[in-house]
Amino acid sequence: MQKSASQIAMLLEGKVFGNPDVIISGPSKIEEGKPGTISFLGNPKYAHYIYDTLASAVLVSKDFVPERPLKATLISVENVYASLAILMEHFSPKIANEKIISSTSIIDPTVHIGDEVSIDDYVIIKANVRIGSRSKIFAQVYIGNNVHIGDNVLIYPGVKIYRDCVIGNNCVIHANAVIGSDGFGFGKDDSGGYKKIAQLGNVVIEDDVEIGSNTVIDRASIGSTMIKKGVKLDNLIQVGHNVTIGENTVIAAQTGIAGSTKIGPNCLIGGQVGFKGHIDIAEGTMIQAQSGIGSNIKHENTKWYGSPAIDFNNYLKSYAYFRKFPEIVQQMRKQEIELDRLKQEIKNFADKTKKEIR
Amino acid sequence: MQKSASQIAMLLEGKVFGNPDVIISGPSKIEEGKPGTISFLGNPKYAHYIYDTLASAVLVSKDFVPERPLKATLISVENVYASLAILMEHFSPKIANEKIISSTSIIDPTVHIGDEVSIDDYVIIKANVRIGSRSKIFAQVYIGNNVHIGDNVLIYPGVKIYRDCVIGNNCVIHANAVIGSDGFGFGKDDSGGYKKIAQLGNVVIEDDVEIGSNTVIDRASIGSTMIKKGVKLDNLIQVGHNVTIGENTVIAAQTGIAGSTKIGPNCLIGGQVGFKGHIDIAEGTMIQAQSGIGSNIKHENTKWYGSPAIDFNNYLKSYAYFRKFPEIVQQMRKQEIELDRLKQEIKNFADKTKKEIR
Amino acid sequence: MQKSASQIAMLLEGKVFGNPDVIISGPSKIEEGKPGTISFLGNPKYAHYIYDTLASAVLVSKDFVPERPLKATLISVENVYASLAILMEHFSPKIANEKIISSTSIIDPTVHIGDEVSIDDYVIIKANVRIGSRSKIFAQVYIGNNVHIGDNVLIYPGVKIYRDCVIGNNCVIHANAVIGSDGFGFGKDDSGGYKKIAQLGNVVIEDDVEIGSNTVIDRASIGSTMIKKGVKLDNLIQVGHNVTIGENTVIAAQTGIAGSTKIGPNCLIGGQVGFKGHIDIAEGTMIQAQSGIGSNIKHENTKWYGSPAIDFNNYLKSYAYFRKFPEIVQQMRKQEIELDRLKQEIKNFADKTKKEIR
């Protein structure tokens, strides 16, 4: 696909600065820009690359003002990442709409499959499953009894979906993710061992959710584990039974959420964060990577850090002192010595004064 | 399945308070209780829901005393979670005992399969494998040469078991878990690179073990990685080569255990905990989520927190001061100023006294 | 395979102390040594086992000097782990070079397969893939369009490799790992939701790389996620889009690396470490398990600990005071009381002196 800078600007509702006729055939990174490609400047850290990049064009924010002349044509837009998303979509190889159902897939006769669905090799689809239109099931996927899958869903190779789960429209589930395995529920028995508590619920994933590779979402013991509309989960995340994740919340890789915790909408959760079970997290909460959340977060739009997590800025302040702990203790020791010296001085002085007065 | 409250009480050896004839057809959560269902009150945090729940019955501890009247029939039992386990089992859909061995599974002629085993589609079972009676192998599982699997074992879709591993009776292994992959062992070579050390051992999983989705247990370099009777491992856990996990130890999601570490029996390990290699952890150790265990734990039944972990309560005390670190340092600065002021005061006073005395 | 101690010494270029004719048929752990086996002493922690081990021979460092007589034949070598690697390789069961391409594998006609390749059951290989000589693809693997795989590569069951990725020679990829899934890239849209940014790049894995089970390496948004020659990745690791990992860097389990971060060569990274995105880590950096790396590391061969990480030794010093925080604060309180007492004493003394002088 080839497009001129001016055509791209039109597509993105942006403005061109420089040669509008330069021809673009794909994207490149600004530090590795090549002629005939378009780069982008999202993170200001990379701004210095823009003056020397070999990319023919660069997507920039409308607020960007070059500090010196540059060769690349600039296309300035309202929101660089949103525009980049549109542009990358244009350069993206289309997943062929094969409408093919492989003869090596094993599909129960009770399954209902919508229009223009493709199902690749060695897929297994059990009884009473429904799959919406234009969804694509890649190879070696397993879909258990009674699962419902919406329209325009992509399920990558090796994903396993246990019985009774529900997947909304426009979802993407990456390779080897597991949806609906048993929650981690055991009751202690009299012998000191544990007895499994049957996990009778399911997982409900609403529309527009993306789930990363090897992420696991456990089924509810009773009721549903809920992943609401627009949630984005990175790779290797653990979602315990009966958890709810609110709309448009974004969670980075390797975070774990223990059972029955409810995370509000529009949260931004870093990687390797841990949530205790049975807590509630308010809307818009931001959590720094590796934090441990051990209790409810009640106020919206707050930022947290540490294990257990405290206010983000307070953590940084306390940690700054933690780094200087040896100096602080040394300073305290100095004060102690000084204090002892003073006591002695006062005593000496008092003794002397007494003598002199006498 | 429908049962009256009195029938359920009989099953659980509990007592009924309220209408014994109310009919129950399934479980529900206490905060989402529905007529015709039975809820439970395990965590006291949820006690306030019991007065308004629409559930027809609620399973409570024999110690529970209502603070005011309530509509639901109560069934009081010795141990709520153990009773819940029994009850949920009753409501659990039975996995059909199909005794079917799929014609699409590829089973080596040397494999020995017990009675009433079911093997689903696209399973691969290599030479000299033995599978006990009433075990169920779900679709797309891989079982390498010489693996032995006991009776009543459930192996969910996509599990991969490398050669020579042993799985006891009544085990459950969830989707896409990996058992017996190579331990992470390399020797530095002269060129600055690493040479792989062949991993010749296996994994031995004893009876009554449950293993979560996408959990990995590496084979021993020499000998066996041991998962003892009754161990419960959550999802996405890493168990390194030559690790031993003692009987009835329970480990939450995303914890990692480095090579050759031995964890005693009856431990409770939180999520995202890390264990250094080559250490020993005493029986009954409790470890808070996200802790890092860097040395032996010798005394039984102790509780730990932090990275590196220290006594649980001491960590909380130290962390309480960590949170107040800016105030503490400010207080120290104040003392310093006060100390300087005192020194000056003494000096002034001494000068003055001298003059006056003179 | 049976070998005498003297034959083993010759193989390892080591020296024999004790009976050179003792026959060895396999390896054992020193604490579980059995007659007819050879153990090794790598970690000095295990040195005390050498005097009582039943192993017929023990591999030791040339620096090892026994403190008292012992029964086992010693074979002393320059580098115990490197020698062990060679020895274990000798005892390792050879993976049969079956040169078989299963009729149940589904291989696109455009695929090019080298000499002596084996492809097991239910493997799927898409268009334009190339596989080098003597590589072995285990069962249930998925290899997407245009993937190139080198010579002598082992790909274990259930691995999923997305389109366009490149795997070098002599690589090992363990079960259910995912290579080339989409990077976690979204642009905020006007409605408060997120729009996916298409991920157009790939993953390039160079020669001699080992990748653990259930590890995930995301494809670049643009360009390549790079895993350089000789890198060793343990299980359950997350590698974000556009990351580069330098030559011979070794990373332990469950570590996560956010997008666009560049890790230098010869680094040693512990388990459960987290790296922020868009940072650079110098050659030879050592990072303690569970650390969080939030900014560039510029100097080579430094050692880090903490979240956020600081100098390793400084962290230990600060943490030693953190453990004593309650005592330190108590000491400060004592000083405060002492200071108040001194102030009062001076005041009293001054009052008294004034009176006496008057």
Determine the oligomeric state from the structure.
homotrimer
Structural class of chain A: alpha/beta
- How much of the sequence lies in strands of chain A comes to 25-35%
What radius of gyration of chain A results from the CA coordinates?
Answer: 30 Å
**Order of strands across the widest beta sheet of chain A?**
10-13-16-19-24-27-30-33-36-38-39
| Biggest beta sheet summary of chain A | 11 strands, mixed
The CA-CA distance between the termini of chain A, in Å, is 106 Å
Sum up the overall morphology of chain A in one term: flat
Number of helices of chain A: 4
Average pLDDT of chain A, rounded to a whole number, is: 94
Low-confidence stretches of chain A: none
Largest interface: A-C, 75 and 67 residues
Query: Percentage of helical residues of chain A?
Result: 10-25%
The total strand number of chain A stands at 39
Question: How would you summarize this macromolecular structure in one to three sentences?
Answer:
The structure is a homotrimer of 358-residue chains. With 358 residues, chain A is α/β, with parallel strands linked by helices.
Task: Describe this protein's structure.
3 copies of one chain form a homotrimer. With 358 residues, chain A is of the alpha/beta class. Chain A is built from 4 helices and 39 strands. In chain A, the strands form 6 sheets. In chain A, strands 10-13-16-19-24-27-30-33-36-38-39 form an 11-stranded mixed sheet. The first copy, chain A, is flat and about 110 Å long. The mean pLDDT of chain A is 94. At the A-C interface, β4, α2, α3 and α4 of A face β21, β22, α3 and α4 of C.
